[in-house]
Amino acid sequence: MLAGVGGQGILFAARVLGTAALKDSYDVKISEVHGMAQRGGSVVTHARIGGKIYAPVVEKGRCDLLIAFEQLEALRWVDYLQKDGRVVMNKQRIDPMPVITGKTGYPADIPVRIGRRGGKVSVMDALDTAEKCGSPRAVNMVLLGRAARYLPINEKSWIDAVSEVTPSQFAAVNLQAFNEGYRATGAGIQRDL
Q: Where are the domains of the chain?
């Protein structure tokens, strides 16, 4: 599953994921679920890949990998994660309206809370990495690159998919961002629980 808020490029990342899986001859089903339609609303995409997939929606407790573009969205969708599942999470925090207006607080220690549920959590500063690659909009490719290490799709298929799906004027930045995420170790990972 890919989860975040509107404007973070979740649907684009799902297209790249689906294209990469098809290049490796997997069956792919993708379903987009939008919260609020405008920028800033919750967005989640279910993506299933395998030998033969009949339905696109991931059931609660069955998600192998949750790619969270924002911390609170990771917490919102963690019930879908299977017990030994993995979360690749951006450390970025985007306050929702109830937090902005002071009606509620932003939850503390989200990675630790997810880790206590039994999931493996990799937290990285994807925004900083994307900016170093030339565009803050490439956060999606940084996170997808990191998550690609946990999916059964070969690296060449990923690179080909990023190149194919990305408009030519953004291809160089997106490829660099994907590669930075894919190769992130040690200093590139803020916390690996």
A: 2-192
* β-bridge pairing 27-34 and 42-50: antiparallel
Residue 188: its pLDDT value, please? 47
3-state secondary structure of 127: helix
Q: What is the pTM of this model?
A: 0.90
From CA 6, how far away is CA 142, in angstroms rounded? 17
Q: Which residues are CB-neighbours of 131 under 8 A, at least 6 positions away?
A: none
Quote the CA–CA distance of 167 and 183 in Å, as a whole number: 23
Whether domain 2-192 has CATH 3.40.920.10? yes
Beta strands in the chain (DSSP E): 2-5, 27-34, 42-50, 63-68, 81-90, 120-124, 191-192
Tens digit of pLDDT for each residue in 96-111?
888 899 999 999 999 9
Q: Which residue type, as a one-letter code, is found at position 83?
A: K
What is the spatial distance between Cα 177 and Cα 171, in angstroms, rounded to a whole number?
10
Phi, psi (deg, nearest 5) at residue 186:
50, -105
Token pair for 27: 């069956």
Residues contacting residue 116 through CB under 8 Å, at least 6 positions apart? none
